[in-house]
Amino acid sequence: MINENFLKLQSSYLFSTIASKVKAFKAEHPEVDVISLGIGDVTQPLPQACLEAMHKAVDEMSSSDTFRGYGPEQGYDFLRKAIIENDYIPRGVQLDMDEVFISDGAKSDCGNIGDILDTRCSVGVTDPVYPVYVDSNVMCGRAGDFVDGKWSNITFLPVSAANRFIPALPQEHIDIIYLCYPNNPTGTVLTKEQLAKWVEYAIREKSLILFDAAYEAYIQHDDIPHSIYEIPGAKSCAIELRSYSKTAGFTGIRCGYTVVPKDLGQLNALWNRRQCTKFNGTSYITQRAAEAIYSPEGKQQVRKTIGYYMDNAAFMRGKLTEMGYEVFGGTDAPYIWLKTPEGVTSWEFFDLILHKIGIVTTPGSGFGPSGEGYVRLTAFGRHEDCEKAMERFKEI
Ligand code: PLP
After folding, report:
1. Pocket test for ligand 1, best of 15, 130, 179, 215 (most atoms within 8 A of CB)
2. Is the alpha carbon torsion for 110, 113, 115, 119 positive or negative?
3. Residue 16's pLDDT is what?
4. Residue 39 pLDDT > 80
5. Does residue 189 carry a pLDDT above 90?
6. Which of 120, 103, 125 is closest to 112 using CA atoms?
7. DSSP class of residue 84?
8. Can you tell me the mean pLDDT for 20-43?
9. What is the pLDDT of residues 234-268, one digit of tens each?
10. Which of 107, 186, 188, 215 to mutate to test the pocket of ligand 1 (most atoms within 8 A of CB)?
């Protein structure tokens, strides 16, 4: 017998359809230099400080005096301490070391955190959405059944230009709410005041917020919270997930962390138990690289790379706005959410700009029904390519 919940998963044709359309176009038009503004991966190299830390850590493995085998499942104290001192204390948030769990990236933890929650819990996600939140709930049966294009136990909270990308609080009770800010795919953010309304809701309803802050390092404006714990009371209703993937180019290195405050009652102990049983820790070499992000050189190098991507975002936003497009996001996130022209669907616009100007985007409808009528552009490319892409946009 198999876990039949897996059979309920809706196939995501998004990235495979994009890849096959791009492949067919390139075969027909080998002369066109296709530019991808669709990729969600970083392109700039690792910070030098991280490379040096990794080399040093590798050398430590060469002698039995400094060799490290299995590490603590929760992560090494040197990294947990660096996280608290750099990511939280400066923002007025006090955490204990045993509230921080080092991971091999936010995707695993987003998917695994459901292990410690009842499968009968109801779920809320903003729409459009990072697909992992939905699919991981389908896999364990928590999503319910897929009827008329909807999961019976998941509430989709629409965000679009109509509500200025601020999700309305649910009318009903929801047990688990996923919030991702800065948001993938829309690139939009919530202010402290707006996020505080969710914390208030969660405390009142005894709900749990799973706050995905994978793009926190891209925030440029002071009124945008980097952590949900900047909101008073959030430690009693929220788990926070962080990633070094987009912060410091760790998409291939793999490291992140999850904060499970002890104010959440048993959840801290349950997550600890879950990790000790099913996870054997992130590699020592990787954790040393992550620690180096917090050194003065590391911080400066990270700022520079993020500055590079955010310059791309500002440049594209500016040019697209000049051309009369309605664009959202891209001010505190590496994603731009572009409204397609009136009456043109996400996929029609995707096809149009691929065929007319050789540019690849990601159709918004692939992230959920409320993504229809938008495409996502990423700022992770090379600056020269963003310039070329904007020149080409003028042609349509
Ligand atoms: N959360 C969001 C919203 C993301 O967009 C991504 C990656 O694209 C992740 C989590 C996963 O990050 P990681 O590379 O740390 O697994």
Report:
1. 130
2. negative
3. 86
4. no
5. yes
6. 103
7. I
8. 94
9. 999 999 999 999 999 999 999 999 999 999 999 99
10. 107
The amino acid at residue 361 is T
Whose C-alpha lies nearest to ligand 1, atom 11? 107
Q: Which two tokens stand for residue 322?
A: 């000049």
The separation between CA 211 and the C-alpha centre of its own chain, rounded to angstroms, equals: 10
- Please name the residue that has the structure tokens 């572009």: 338
Cα 316 to the chain's mean position, in Å?
A: 21
Best residue among 243, 282, 286 to mutate for probing ligand 1, ranked by most atoms within 8 Å of CB: 243
Average pLDDT, whole number, for the chain? 97
Q: Give nearest CA residue, ligand 1 atom 1.
A: 214
Smallest CA-to-CA distance from 123 within 163, 152, 149, 148 is with 152
pLDDT of residue 40: 82
- CA-CA distance, 53 to 50, in Å (whole number)? 5
pLDDT at 332: 98
Cα 251 to ligand 1 centroid, rounded to whole Å:
9
Q: For tokens 């990729």, what's the residue?
A: 39
Contact 162, 195 (CB under 8 A): no
pTM over 0.70: yes
How many angstroms does the Cα of residue 110 sit away from the middle of ligand 1?
9
59 CA distance to ligand 1 middle (Å): 30
Q: What is the dihedral of CA 364, 368, 373, 379, to 10 degrees?
A: -20
Q: What is the pLDDT of residue 131?
A: 92
Closest CA to 342 of 161, 185, 186, 183: 161
Q: Which of 33-47, 57-71, 227-241 has the lowest mean pLDDT?
A: 33-47
**183 C-alpha to center of ligand 1: Å?**
11
Mean pLDDT of 217-229: 97
| DSSP code of residue 394 | T
Around ligand 1, the residues with Cβ closer than 6 Å are 40, 105-107, 110, 130, 180, 184, 212, 214, 243, 245, 251, 256
Task: Write the pLDDT tens digit of every residue in 2-22.
Answer: 999 999 998 877 888 999 999
- Centroid of ligand 1 to alpha carbon of 244 (angstroms): 9
* Ligand 1 atom closest to 107 (CA): 16
Residue 180 CA: which ligand 1 atom is closest?
3
